[in-house]
Specification:
66 residues; 88% helix; mainly alpha
Length: 66
């Protein structure tokens, strides 16, 4: 069970880094907001769900621009 929590934590860190890189590439502020909410979501789990919804809208916005 501890190994699972460690892998989950490493996966979240990777997702957060990827969101910050997407913000740098596309300058879409919703990627930054989603990354910050994922950081806080490590401690408050409901924010992970809200961050996933924001991430969906950020991806949709970028797809419409390109």
């Amino acid at each position: 069970m501890i190994v699972g929590f460690i892998l989950l934590f490493i996966g979240k860190i990777g997702l957060i880094i990827a969101l910050f890189k997407l913000y740098d590439n596309f300058k879409e502020s919703l990627f930054l907001v989603s990354g910050i909410l994922y950081i806080v979501g490590i401690f408050v789990q409901i924010l992970n769900f809200i961050s996933a919804i924001i991430l969906y809208f950020a991806c949709d916005s970028v797809m419409k621009r390109t």
